[in-house]
C-alpha cells in the first residue's frame, strides 16, 4: 500500500512539471481569507472560534525562528495548548511538528478552538487544531529576500550551592541531628576553607568560569526567492541556524547545533479547469556534544567529594606503581593530570568530557506533498474537486566515539612538609576504540491522503450556499529503539469522512452543519465507527435596521455552536477491550491456588473483557462575539465555552465491581470501562486598538482567558469525603497543611502521630485533618489549582509603535491563580546530596524562632520533603517575552539600484519576569535560562 501511494504521488508530481500552467488569483482579497478545515473562509463570514496570526507580517517587526512565535501574546485561549487541551499540529493540512517549520516559512497560523471548527478532521483533532500555512509564490516578478541575525545568550542565574567547607560543617550538623558521629574532622574543614590544596581538599564549583562561558552565541541566515506569472507561481525558502554551547570544558568546547532547511512549492495550471500544487521540504540537523550529564550531576555531586584532576607533579616519584599508572594511562590530561574518582564514582562529568568521547546526533527530514484541484463547473456550476497526497520521512541516528577510562583514588600524606600522593587506587580500565560507530537509529513516517468535493454558489444575489464532502486519513509509523525494531504495536492512524453544509443570507444570517464519520481500531468490532455532528449559527446584528443609529458600532456579529465529537485520543492503547493474562511468573505476576494443602501457580489476570468499550466524547456549547467599534478604533473577539468530556476510561475499582475481582496489586479481573467525566468551561477574549497620533501609529493588543475545570464523575473510593476528586478541579493540587516546626519533644508527643519516618524537633508539623490522631495520606487536602493545563487566568499583551521609519514592538504574557511547590533538589536537600544556600535558614535550637527551613538530616527527609503549604507558592507572573526596534530605510534610499528595501533591527528575548517569585522562576536546576540579545537585517532585491 505504501509503495502504491508513493508511485501515485510521484506520477502526479511528474505530470505537474510537464504541464506547468497558471493559478488564477482568488477573487477575494487574500488578507481577508481565514484558513479553516480543508478550505478558506472570508473573515467577515467566519462563524467558528478561530483566531489567526499573520506570521509573515509579524516577523517584519519581530525576529524568531519558532513557527508559533507570539501565540501566547496575540491569541486568547492559547496557553501552549487550546482551552486547556493539547492540540493537533497541522502544517499545510498535514500532521507535522511545528519545530520542522521556521517562522520565515510561515504565511499564517489559524488556532482552531471550538469543536465545530475541527470536527472535519476527525478523532485525533478533537482537542483543537493549530493549522500552520506556509508561504507561496505571487503573481509578480521574481523577488529575493535575505535575512541575517546574530545573537548572544546570557544566563539569567545559576543555582547557588555551598562551598565545601560550609557543606562539611552543615553535614556534620545533620549527623548530630540524626544521632550520628560527625563525618568530617575540623582539620579537613579548615584546610578546605583556606584553600590549602584544592586537589587534596577539593571545592568543586560546576558554575565557575573554568567550565562555563559567560554567554554562547547563535546566528542564522534565511533566503527567499518567490514570484510568478500568469502561468506559474513559485516559492523557495532556504536557511541555516547555528549555535554553540555554554559549556566549554573538554569535548564540550566543540559542541554545536546546526540546522539547514530548504522548502519550496510550485502552483500551476495544467488546463483551464485543472490546477496542481507541489510542495517539498528538506531539513538537516546536526548536533555535536561531549559525553556525560554535566548539568544533571551539577545539582547533586558534593563539592568536596573528590578532585576531578590529580596533578602528577604531586605524586611520589619513588612509588613504582604510581609511575606505571602515569606511563600507561591513555588519558594524561595536558600531560599534567590523571583523572580523579572513587570506587563509587568511576565515571564523572569532568572525566566524561575529557576522556569518554563524543556523540554526533543527526536528523534528516523529508516532506513532500502534491495536490490536484479541478473546476467541475462544466458539469455543475460551483462544483470543484481536490485531492492531496503527502509522505513525510524522518530518520534519526547518531555517530559516536566512546572510550572507557580509568579513574584514580589518591592517598595523601605529608612528605618533607609538602602534600604528596603516596598511593593510587585504580578504578576501571583504559580501553581505546579508534573507530566511530553508529549508535541509535530510528525513523518515523507519515502518509496522508485526502479527497474532497466543494460546492459554492450564490443564488439571487443574497443566498450564499457552500458545501464540502471529504475523505481524509493519515498513518504514522515509528521505530524508536536501537535494535531497529518498531516500537509501535499498532501504527497511529486517523481516517474519517466529513460533510459540511453552510448557508448565509446576505452575510447577515448564518447556519453551518458539519459532521464526520470516524473509525478507530482501538475499539472492539461493532464499536469502531461513530458520527460526530456540529451545528453553528451566526447573526450580524449590526446590519439590522434597529442598529442604524448606533454610531459607535461598525460591525457586530454573534455566533453560537453545539458539537458532539467522538475521539480515541484518551484511549491509551490498542486491545484494552480484551482480557489478558500474564506469563511472567518470575516477575510476581502469577497467583497461587490451593486445594487442601497442595497448590500451584496460575497466570494472573491483568484485566477483564469489555466488548462494549466505546469512544470518548467531547460535547460542547460555545457562544461568541466579534465587534469593531468606534470608527474601527477597537476590535473585539470573545468566546464563552462549556465542554464536557464523557466516557473517559478507568479500570473499574471496588466502587463499581465486587472487591474479589481484584485479586492482588498485580492481578485483577477489572475491565477498562467508559466511566469518568470532565468539564471545562471558560471565557477567552482578544481586544486590540489602533490609533494615530501625528507621526505616531500605535497598536495595543490585550488577550486572555478565564478558565476552570471540574471532575464530574470518577471511579473512586475513599475513607473521607474531602478526599474525593469528584466536583474538584482537574488540576487540583493536593498536599498537607503545615503548622510550622516541631519545637521540642513535648511538642511532638502532644501532636498527632506523623507516619513519615522518625520525627524530631525541627521537622515540619502537619495538621490532622480528619482528627484521627494520625498524620498519613488521608490528611492531604486540596491546596489550590496547579494550572498544568491552563491557569485560572492567563493573559497576553502586545504593543506596536511606529514613528516615521522606526517601529518598536513588544509582547509579553502572564498568568495568575495557580500554585506550585518548591520541590526540586535545590530545595529538598536529601541525604548526601549537596546543600544549596536555602539551608542557611535551617532550624536549630538557636534559630527556632526565625527558622525558614527544616532541620538538616542525612536521611531522605521523608517527613519534611512532601508537598505542603510550607513549600507552596503562587505562580503569578508577567514575562516580557520579546522587544524589537526596527528601522526601515526610506524607499528612495536605493533608488536606481537592485536593492528594493533594507531594514535593520535589534532586540531581545526572555528579557524580564515580574513576580514575587521571580528568583525562583528564573532559576533552573540544570542548564540555565538565558536572555537573548540579537541584531539583524533584512534586505529585499
Structural description of this entry:
The chain is mainly beta. 9% of the residues lie in helices and 46% in strands. The chain is built from eleven helices and 47 strands. The chain has a 22-stranded antiparallel beta barrel. It has a five-stranded mixed sheet with strand order 3-6-7-4-5. Helix 5 packs antiparallel against helix 6. The longest helix has 17 residues, at 2-18. Residues 1-30 and 482-486 have low confidence and may be disordered. Residues 75-129 form the TonB-dependent receptor plug domain. This is SusC/RagA family TonB-linked outer membrane protein. Residues 1-25 form the signal peptide. InterPro entries: Plug_dom, Plug_dom_sf, TonB-dep_OMP_SusC/RagA, TonB-dep_OMP_SusC/RagA_CS. It comes from Bacteroides oleiciplenus YIT 12058.
What is the compact description of this entry?
The chain has 941 residues and is mostly beta strands.
Amino acid at each position: 500500500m505504501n509503495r502504491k501511494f508513493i508511485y501515485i504521488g510521484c506520477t502526479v508530481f511528474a505530470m505537474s512539471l510537464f504541464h506547468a500552467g497558471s493559478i488564477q488569483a482568488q477573487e477575494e482579497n487574500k488578507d481577508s481569507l481565514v484558513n479553516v478545515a480543508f478550505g478558506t473562509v472570508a473573515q467577515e463570514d467566519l462563524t467558528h472560534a478561530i483566531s489567526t496570526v499573520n506570521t509573515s507580517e509579524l516577523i517584519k517587526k519581530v525576529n524568531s525562528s519558532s513557527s508559533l512565535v507570539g501565540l501566547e501574546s496575540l491569541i486568547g485561549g492559547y496557553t501552549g495548548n487550546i482551552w486547556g487541551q493539547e492540540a493537533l499540529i497541522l502544517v499545510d493540512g498535514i500532521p507535522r511538528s511545528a519545530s520542522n517549520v521556521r517562522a520565515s516559512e510561515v504565511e499564517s497560523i489559524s488556532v482552531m478552538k471550538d469543536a465545530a471548527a475541527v470536527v472535519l478532521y476527525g478523532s485525533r483533532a478533537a482537542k483543537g487544531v493549530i493549522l500552520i500555512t506556509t508561504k507561496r509564490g505571487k503573481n509578480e516578478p521574481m523577488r529575493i529576500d535575505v535575512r541575517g541575525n546574530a545573537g548572544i545568550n546570557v544566563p539569567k542565574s545559576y543555582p547557588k550551592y555551598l562551598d565545601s567547607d560550609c557543606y562539611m560543617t552543615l553535614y556534620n550538623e545533620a549527623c548530630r541531628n540524626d544521632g550520628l558521629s560527625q563525618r568530617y574532622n575540623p582539620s579537613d574543614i579548615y584546610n578546605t576553607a583556606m584553600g590549602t590544596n584544592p586537589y587534596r581538599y577539593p571545592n568543586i564549583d560546576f558554575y565557575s568560569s573554568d567550565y562555563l562561558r559567560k554567554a554562547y552565541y547563535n546566528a542564522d541566515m534565511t533566503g527567499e526567492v518567490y514570484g510568478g506569472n500568469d502561468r506559474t507561481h513559485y516559492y523557495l525558502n532556504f536557511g541555516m541556524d547555528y549555535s554553540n554551547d555554554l559549556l566549554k570544558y573538554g569535548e564540550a568546547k566543540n559542541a554545536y547545533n546546526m540546522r539547514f532547511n530548504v522548502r519550496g512549492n510550485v502552483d500551476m495550471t495544467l488546463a483551464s479547469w485543472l490546477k496542481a500544487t507541489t510542495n517539498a521540504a528538506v531539513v538537516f540537523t546536526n548536533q555535536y556534544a561531549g559525553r556525560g550529564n554535566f548539568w544533571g550531576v551539577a545539582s547533586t555531586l558534593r563539592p568536596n567529594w573528590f578532585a576531578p584532576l590529580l596533578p602528577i607533579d604531586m605524586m611520589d616519584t619513588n612509588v613504582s606503581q604510581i609511575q606505571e599508572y602515569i606511563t600507561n594511562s591513555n588519558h594524561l590530561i595536558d600531560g599534567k593530570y590523571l583523572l580523579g574518582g572513587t570506587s563509587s564514582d568511576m565515571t564523572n562529568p569532568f572525566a566524561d568530557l575529557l576522556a569518554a568521547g563524543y556523540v554526533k546526533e543527526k536528523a534528516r527530514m523529508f516532506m513532500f506533498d502534491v495536490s490536484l484541484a479541478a473546476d467541475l463547473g462544466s458539469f455543475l456550476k460551483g462544483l470543484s474537486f481536490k485531492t492531496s497526497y503527502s509522505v513525510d520521512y524522518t530518520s534519526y541516528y547518531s555517530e559516536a566515539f566512546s572510550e572507557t577510562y580509568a579513574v584514580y583514588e589518591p592517598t595523601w600524606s605529608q612528605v618533607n612538609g609538602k602534600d604528596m600522593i603516596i598511593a593510587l587506587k585504580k578504578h576501571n580500565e583504559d580501553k581505546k576504540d579508534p573507530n566511530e560507530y553508529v549508535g541509535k537509529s530510528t525513523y518515523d513516517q507519515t502518509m496522508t491522503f485526502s479527497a474532497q468535493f466543494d460546492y459554492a454558489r450564490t443564488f439571487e444575489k443574497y443566498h450564499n450556499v457552500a458545501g464540502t464532502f471529504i475523505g481524509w486519513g493519515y498513518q504514522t509509523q515509528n521505530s524508536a529503539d536501537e535494535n531497529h525494531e518498531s516500537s509501535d504495536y499498532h501504527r497511529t492512524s486517523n481516517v474519517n469522512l466529513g460533510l459540511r453544509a453552510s448557508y448565509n443570507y446576505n452575510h447577515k444570517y448564518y447556519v453551518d452543519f458539519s459532521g464526520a464519520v470516524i473509525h478507530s481500531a482501538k475499539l472492539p468490532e461493532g464499536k469502531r465507527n461513530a458520527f460526530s455532528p456540529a451545528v453553528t449559527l451566526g447573526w450580524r446584528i449590526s446590519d439590522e435596521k434597529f442598529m442604524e443609529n448606533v454610531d459607535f458600532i461598525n460591525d457586530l456579529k454573534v455566533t453560537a455552536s453545539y458539537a458532539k465529537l467522538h475521539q480515541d485520543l484518551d484511549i491509551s492503547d490498542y486491545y484494552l477491550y480484551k482480557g489478558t493474562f500474564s506469563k511472567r511468573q518470575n516477575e510476581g505476576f502469577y497467583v497461587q491456588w490451593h486445594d487442601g494443602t497442595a497448590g500451584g501457580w496460575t497466570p494472573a489476570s491483568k484485566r477483564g473483557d469489555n466488548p462494549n468499550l466505546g469512544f470518548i466524547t467531547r460535547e460542547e456549547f460555545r457562544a461568541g462575539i466579534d465587534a469593531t467599534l468606534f470608527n474601527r478604533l477597537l476590535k473585539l473577539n470573545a468566546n464563552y465555552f462549556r465542554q464536557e468530556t464523557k466516557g473517559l476510561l478507568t479500570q473499574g475499582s471496588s466502587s463499581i465491581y465486587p472487591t474479589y475481582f481484584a485479586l492482588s496489586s498485580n492481578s485483577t479481573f477489572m475491565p477498562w470501562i467508559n466511566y469518568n467525566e470532565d468539564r471545562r468551561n471558560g471565557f477567552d477574549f482578544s481586544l486590540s486598538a489602533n490609533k494615530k497620533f501625528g507621526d505616531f501609529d500605535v497598536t495595543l493588543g490585550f488577550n486572555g482567558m478565564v478558565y476552570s475545570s471540574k471532575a464530574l464523575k470518577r471511579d473512586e473510593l475513599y475513607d473521607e469525603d474531602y478526599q474525593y476528586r469528584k466536583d474538584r478541579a482537574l488540576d487540583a493540587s493536593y498536599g498537607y497543611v503545615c503548622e510550622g516546626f516541631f519545637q521540642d519533644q513535648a511538642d511532638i508527643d502532644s501532636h498527632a502521630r506523623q507516619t513519615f519516618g522518625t520525627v524530631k524537633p525541627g521537622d515540619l508539623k502537619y495538621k490532622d485533618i480528619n482528627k484521627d490522631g494520625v498524620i498519613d495520606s488521608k490528611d492531604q487536602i486540596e491546596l489550590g489549582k496547579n494550572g498544568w493545563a491552563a491557569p485560572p487566568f492567563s493573559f497576553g499583551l502586545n504593543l506596536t509603535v511606529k514613528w516615521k521609519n522606526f517601529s518598536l514592538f513588544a509582547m509579553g504574557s502572564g498568568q495568575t491563580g495557580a500554585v506550585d511547590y518548591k520541590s526540586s533538589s535545590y530545595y529538598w536537600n536529601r541525604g548526601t546530596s549537596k546543600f544549596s544556600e536555602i539551608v542557611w535558614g535551617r532550624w536549630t535550637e538557636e534559630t527556632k524562632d526565625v527558622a525558614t527551613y527544616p532541620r538538616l538530616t542525612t536521611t531522605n527527609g521523608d517527613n519534611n520533603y512532601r508537598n505542603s503549604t510550607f513549600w507552596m507558592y503562587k505562580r503569578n507572573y508577567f514575562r516580557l517575552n520579546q522587544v524589537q526596534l526596527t528601522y526601515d530605510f526610506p524607499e528612495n534610499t536605493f533608488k536606481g539600484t537592485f536593492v528594493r528595501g533594507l531594514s535593520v533591527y535589534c532586540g531581545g528575548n526572555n528579557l524580564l519576569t515580574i513576580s514575587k517569585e521571580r528568583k525562583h522562576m528564573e532559576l533552573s536546576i540544570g542548564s540555565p535560562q538565558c536572555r537573548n540579545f540579537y541584531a539583524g537585517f533584512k534586505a529585499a532585491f
